Amino acid sequence: MQSQIQTPTEQKSQRPLVAIIGGGVSGAGVAYHLLKLAGEDAPDIVVFEPRPMLGRGLAYDTADPAHRINVPAAKMSLQPDDVEEFQRWIEANNAVRDDPEAARENGQLFPRRRVFGDYVGSLLQPFLKSGAIGHRRATVTGIHRRGNGWAILDDKGGLTEADIVAIATSHPPPVAPGRLAAILGEHPRFIADTTKSGALEVVRPHDRVLVIGNGLTAADVIASLARNGHEGPVTAISRRGLRSRGHAAVPQEAFGDFISEPALSAIALLRLIRQTIRQATEQGQSWHAVIDQVRGQGHDLWRSLPVVERRRIVRHLRPYWDVHRFRIAPQVEEVLDAAIEAGRLEILAASVADAKAEGEAIHITLQPRHAREKLERTFDAVLVTTGPAHGGILQTQPWLGELAREGYLALDPTGLGLACSERSEALGPEGTVISSLLISGPLARGTFGELMGLPQITEHTVFVAREIAEKLKAVSAG
User: Fold this and answer.
1) One-character DSSP codes across 58-100
2) Which tens digits make up the pLDDT trace of 359-395?
3) Considering only CA atoms, which of 141, 171, 110 is closest in space to residue 398?
4) Residue pair 31/462 in contact by the 8 Å Cβ criterion
């Protein structure tokens, strides 16, 4: 198929075209590494991303100064084989000169999240200037099979014909409990998606706030409220009342071995992790080092587990994994600790049993996890921070649902994203491999396991880029 974006002035190219949908780290990384791998044989590359800059995506586009990377800068990079590149870039560009809180006493850097987006964008800039990567500032509205390739429609009226498509879209937004959304949907301070720009501006300084969720998003929201001058009480709830943990006091090497004799069930894996933590403690290391090893060996570990055991982990162990794996930045941890100590932040293991709006007051009935008696509370604002609703990904964008109905996409059986092969190729509802449609980033984690952290995401972008390069080479050879 000849590649093209149909506009009145553009010439057709004889080279194949790879279309990447989503210009965050997952999409930008695939484009960047594909160019490096393909060299002179590089295809035309078009990245669909409505934001003005590639590389930011949802995670690194935030301008909120309270939002920080939750991994030390020395462990973040777009280059899996050069993990300190981001830190060197920060030093070379004096990128935290206006952020004295970025550096910690132990020497680690936790800059604002937007800084990482600047870094990724800087790596792509030369390719954008040369035209090696095309940035289509548009939202995809439809994708249809056309011959051996794909026809992509966008909201700017464009029609792009591509030979290979990589889906690297953002996390789906959180989903508020249905009954709660129905009752409070019209309330001015019911915020169902806190990731939207300016969402927290409606919260007043002394409002009584209920935060539904206790993970990284909740921590960011509470830190943002504090920076905005909020002084009212905050109650954060989740089913288990687990709060995201912080980082180890000092850097540690990963500890343990989870792949030489991999666990074949959820309970066996849990026992092995606990046993390894005890061994690490005896050697003067903390649980952080063990979880880091599980994370680093996550792909091989996940592959060894039957699907039924993967489902069991998602259903029963995922909340415990999340709070240990997704650690909050020290600056955010300090804000939460101070709020708890001052009595302004309460963390409960509870769920919403009922809700009623009376004027601007929101009356909430909470059901504590370990008590029969319900709690009656009144709030001025309710914020949903339950994290991405990956199980509903096909409903978040019309073209995803359309591809599923046409037999080109399906949910992963674990409910963690889109079904794909070990080569990251999309799988249809019957398990049919769609070889020219690939999944990049967290939406592929049902197959690849740990794909939420930056190191694993960048490794996966290289993997997907290599798969695309090999497919193009096979086509040209044939």
Assistant:
1) TTT----TT-B-SS-GGG--S-TT-TTHHHHHHHHHTTTTT-T
2) 999 999 999 998 889 999 999 999 999 876 666 788 8
3) 141
4) no
Contact 323, 245 (CB under 8 A): yes
Tell me the backbone φ, ψ of residue 146, rounded to 5 degrees: -140, 105
Residue 174 confidence (pLDDT) above 80: no
DSSP string, 405-469: HTTS--B-TTSSSB-B-TT-EEE-TT--EEEEEEE-SGGGHHHHS--SSHHHHHHHHHHHHHHHH
Q: Among residues 57, 77, 80, 60, which one has the least CA distance to residue 69?
A: 60
Q: What is the CA radius of gyration of the chain?
A: 23
Q: Is 215:385 a contact under the CB 8 Å cutoff?
A: yes
Q: What is the amino acid identity at position 310?
A: R
Q: Which residue, among 160, 34, 115, has the nearest Cα to 440 in the 3D structure?
A: 34
Greater pLDDT, 318 or 266: 266
Q: State the residue for tokens 């915020």.
A: 191
Could you read off the pLDDT of 92-135 as tens digits, one per residue? 999 999 999 999 888 899 999 999 999 999 999 999 999 999 99
- Give the max Cα distance, the chain: 70
Over residues 350-365, the mean pLDDT reads 94
Q: Mind giving me the DSSP string for 264-294?
A: -SHHHHHHHHHHHHHHHHHTT--HHHHHHHH
Alpha carbon distance 310, 172 (integer Å): 21
Going by C-alpha positions, the residue among 373, 330, 328, 332 that lies closest to residue 350 is 373
What pLDDT is recorded for position 62?
85
What's the CA gap between 297 and 288, in Å, rounded? 14
DSSP β-ladder status, 425-427 and 433-439: antiparallel
